[in-house]
Amino acid sequence: MARKAVGRPKKVDGDRTRKPRKKKDKNAPKRALSAFMFFSNDIRDTVKKEMPELQFLEISSEIGRRWKKITDEERRPYDELAAADKRRYLEEKEDYVPDPSFETTKGSRKKKDPNAPKRALSAYFFFCNDIRQETRDENPNKKITEIATLLAEKWRALPDKKRLKYQKMHDEAKVKYQHQMDVYNSNGAVEEEEEVEHDDEDDEDDE
Length: 207
Prior knowledge:
mainly alpha; HMGB; disordered C terminus; HMG_box_dom; nucleus; DNA binding; 0% strand; HMG box domain-containing protein; DNA Binding (I), subunit A
């Protein structure tokens, strides 16, 4: 008598336990974009206009196909944008001060407080803000991505002595931000204490 093949028991959907997603701090620095992502953002609208019949995933595939075909010379601006964005991310990450009141409890969602102090700009961003308009005036026909590339090139070519000006601006802004955060967090703690005291008074009245 032939034996019946015994297979593995089927998994029931209810048996699967999904790990809760880790909550992200909305104030944390945004991760740097890759060269491909800069390229994708640059030509996505063009692909949509040229091939309106494509669906979302098909558009992504077409962008990937074009990315593989571009020359090293055509790719260089996107590599430079990615390198500049990576420096931005690393600098912001170094200066990032997590909000101590940020909660990661499951089901809780931390809303960004519009009254919270803004993080200090990096030396690179102070530099960009200082010469961006001048660079635009010198290159009126350049796209935003091309202007960003020029700014990155100028920053790389900037002597260390001239960078000190922007590093000092960053250091001063960082100290100011830290002071503002201390005051901000302190005020939040005081408000919580006051609420607790009011609750105690209400309890006494009830008695």
